[in-house]
Write a structure and sequence with these properties.
Number of domains: 1
Order of helices and strands: EEEHHEHHEEHEH
Structural class: alpha+beta
Mean pLDDT: 88
Largest sheet: 7 strands, mixed
Distance between the termini: 10 Å
Helix content: 25-40%
Shape: globular
Radius of gyration: 16 Å
Length: 183
């Protein structure tokens, strides 16, 4: 599925993706030279952002306890759910990927270069630090970073994605708490 932002992309539009699981959405940004430069701090944490096989950077925002303890839904326990509902520190999860499989269900959005630059600014502002937290990721290529803001029932990961997209000029609803409320 390909959708465009609210303004038609200029010549040289840039494609991003939204990858949604059952309750969470990540933003996929292409690993352009601009992105590799902007997120160069990932290399210091051992993430091979400059490797030629890296095509995409996946970024998500979420509740620290839930995000770092729930690798899949079989790991789910009451404590991280309670903290997510009532309030928890936020973290960013960053992962790297090669080319996307053709069968992967990704919503693709076309952004103008200005929209893309604004999106990168908003994502960068989501990081409270460029030093990863001392917690293992889910695989060899991901890391968790302290994030700005607090996660709670009214400020979910999908609300963050909606805010970032809206700020970049992508048409989204006023409140996007669920995966189906995003483009």
């Amino acid at each position: 599925m390909v959708r465009t932002g609210s303004k038609p992309p200029d010549e040289g539009g840039i494609e991003i993706g939204l990858f949604a699981g059952p309750i969470h959405t990540d933003i996929l940004i292409p690993a352009t030279a601009q992105v590799r430069d902007r997120f160069g701090f990932l290399a210091a944490a051992g993430m091979p952002i400059n490797h030629p096989d890296v095509s995409w950077v996946s970024v998500g925002w979420g509740a620290r306890d839930f995000y770092t303890t729930t690798g899949d839904y079989t790991d789910l326990s009451l404590r991280p759910v309670w903290r997510a509902v009532t309030g928890d520190h936020a973290v960013m999860r960053v992962d790297l990927a090669g080319p996307l499989r053709a069968d992967l269900d990704v919503t693709r959005l076309q952004l103008s270069p200005d929209q893309f630059a604004t999106l990168l600014d908003a994502i960068s502002a989501g990081f409270a630090s460029d030093n990863p937290i001392d917690h293992p990721g889910f695989n060899a290529t991901d890391r968790f970073y302290p994030a700005t803001g607090r996660f709670h029932l009214l400020r979910t990961c999908n609300v963050w994605v909606g805010d970032v997209l809206r700020g970049a000029g992508v048409r989204v609803g006023l409140w996007t708490p669920f995966i189906w409320s995003l483009p």
